[in-house]
Amino acid sequence: MVEPPLKWAGGKRQILSEIRACFPPESDVNAYHEPFFGGGALFFKEVSEDTPGSINDINTRLMNFYRQVRDNPDEVIEHLESFDAPDADPDPDREYSDVNRKGKEIEQYYYQQRELYNRRPNDEEFDPVEEAALLMYLNRTCYNGLYRENLSGEFNVPIGRHSSADWVQSSRIQQASHALQDVEILDGDFEYVLDYASEGDLVYFDPPYEPVSHTSSFVEYSSEEFGTEQQQRLCDVAVELREMGAHVVISNSPPMKDLYVGLDEFEVHEVGAKRHINSDGDSRGEVGEIIVTTVPDTNRREKTAYLDQFTPAKTDGGQ
Questions:
Q1: Which of 27, 188, 252, 274 has the most CB atoms less than 10 A away?
Q2: What separation in angstroms does the CA of 224 have from each of 58, 59, 153, 281?
Q3: pTM above the 0.70 mark?
């Protein structure tokens, strides 16, 4: 088991045991694929280090982070160790020590690093290793551990409230690097998996969720949208994977239940999950979810109690 290096809203920490219980035994899995990787909670907790496969996410900077963790963990850690406290003064030897791109005054170190991180969507030159370290730093020091982009693709979460934030996380980075060694890392559309998966492989989908009501909302992790048409396309891909003999497991929100009910060999379970990362404190708590699986109940893993005992991530910069 590996502790995920990033905090990630929408992560599956609270229902890992339910999801795992819908997987086939490890001996029946040839390779593992996760087309909506995010924080990778399930991968790092449940996938053996020697299991080949692929991970993917449309957030290119997020997947750059995992590539650098896989290939250059020591360099990422070295960068992280060089960073100052988020509320410190900006570094006068780096760009954006006075104002940001729009001419707004920068008074804290955090906002200088956020501006440096946002080089990529502005088509400026960037160092992939530094960018990975900056993502880790911002993730550990921003407000509530959120990842949110504006319509221009810029990370725009404000500084969090921190007393003892640990943004280096060297042990987690080294462990994650070992876990990712046999994994291909991509940053495109989820349909790539049709070219990568084979009979006997396990594919786990955790797409962006549809709101559970007309008045609710879901955190935007990137400037890309994932709406009803995309959900239908995901369902079609899942059916194609099942037809080729791959094992398919999907976690999703209740409005997507009707897409899968009645499909041949698909079974739908309803579960609850507590959300601990949310911009609105009143919105944290129990959220209904569904788990869809093509794995017969006679050939699933046993539910493990220890997965329900993890301490929830703190909401203002803790570990």
A1: 252
A2: 8, 9, 9, 25
A3: yes
The amino acid at 237: V
Residue with tokens 């309803």: 270
Q: What is the 3-state secondary structure (H, E, C) of 1-29?
A: CCCCCCCCCCCCHHHHHHHHCCCCCHHHC
| Domain-located, residue 228 | yes
Residue 199, domain extent: 13-60+171-309
HSE at residue 155, side-chain half, CA atoms within 13 A, is 29
- The DSSP line for 120-175 is GGGT----HHHHHHHHHHHHHHBGGG---B-TTS-B-PPB---SS-----HHHHHH
Question: Among the three residues 94, 129, 163, which one is the final residue of a domain in this structure?
Answer: 163
Q: What's the rounded Cα separation, in Å, for the pair 286 and 315? A: 16
Which amino acid, one-letter code, is at 180? L
Query: What digits encode the pLDDT tens for the residues 268-307?
Result: 999 876 554 444 545 445 558 999 999 999 999 887 653 3
